[in-house]
C-alpha cells in the first residue's frame, strides 16, 4: 500500500535507508558478522569466473557487483545483458558460475539464459527480491534482496538492495578484514537518508535543468559511469527525456558533437582518483555551451556544485550517488505530467523475450 504517498516510486525511494539496514541484519550471523549461506559461498569459491546475467537496472547494479567481486574478492567477472548472452554466448571459462540478478525473478530474457546454461551443465545462483519466483525456483541457489515489494515500474530500492547484497556477497567470499562493511553500510544508509531528507531540493534542480529540454547527458568515470547509465535509464523511462550515460573521457570521441547551448549535462563526482579528470570533462562540455549540473561527494566538492552528497566508503559510492539521479527523474516526470509509477509502453516485469 502506498498510504499517504502520491506515488509508489516516492515511497520506495524513501524506504531505501531502511532497506540497507534490513539487509545488513538479514545477512548477519550469530556473532553479528556479515556472511552468506555456506553452500552458496562454496559454489562461488569453486568458480574460476563469475558470469552475471541481467537486464535494465539489474544490469547496471551488476556492473557495480563486478567491481566488488574483482576488487574485494579477487574473482574475475563478466557481466552480460541477458537478451544478448542467450544468442551470442562468449567463450566460457573452465568452471563458470552463473549469477542471475533480477528484482522480479521473472524476466524472460534471463530465464532463457538460465535454461540454456543448465542444459550445458553449469550451476546458477539467482539473487532476487521475490522468493519462489521462476529464476529462483529454477536456479541451484538463491539469495534474497529483502527490499520488500517494489511496485513502481522504475526500479529504485531494488537497485540499492542489489548493490548492497553484492557487496556483502563479495565481502563474505573474500573473508576480508580490510573493510568494516557493516559499519560502512550503516554510514551509506545514513547518507541516503540525508539525501532523501532534502528531496525537495531536486524540484529546483529539475526546474533549472530539465524543465523544457529535449535531451540530457549523464557523465561519470569509474563507478560513476555505471551510475550515469542507471540515471539516464531512469530519466528516459519515466520522464521521456532522451538521456544517455557516458564515461566522461569518451565524450570527445563523438558524443560531444551533440552538445549545444544549454544542453544539460549531469556530472557525478564521487571517485577520488578520477575527480580531476571528470572536472576536466565538465570543462570540455561547458566550453561547447553545456549547462552542467554537478553532483559531487563531500571531500571532492567545489564551489558552485549543484548538489553535494555525504561521504561514504569509496566502494559504496553508488548507493549514495544513485539517489539524486532517482529524485531528479521522479521530479522531472512529475513536472512534465507523466505517469510516474506506470510509464507508457512498459510493464513491471518483462515476461516475454
Ligand atoms: O525484474 P528484473 O530485475 O529482472 O527486471 C529487469 C529490468 O526489466 C528492470 O530493471 C527495468 O529496467 C526497470 N524498469 C528499470 O527501472
TrEMBL record:
Q: Name one GO biological process term.
A: protein N-linked glycosylation
Task: Decide whether keyword Transferase is in the record.
Answer: yes
Oligomeric and partner information: Homodimer.
GO MF annotations in UniProt: carbohydrate derivative binding; glutamine-fructose-6-phosphate transaminase (isomerizing) activity
Subcellular location per the Swiss-Prot or TrEMBL entry? Cytoplasm
Q: How is this protein named in the record?
A: Glutamine--fructose-6-phosphate aminotransferase [isomerizing]
Annotated organism of origin: Kurthia sibirica
Is Repeat one of the keywords UniProt gives this record?
yes
* Residue range from the parent sequence: 244 to 596 of 596
The protein's superkingdom reads Bacteria
What does the record give as the reaction this protein catalyses?
A: D-fructose 6-phosphate + L-glutamine = D-glucosamine 6-phosphate + L-glutamate
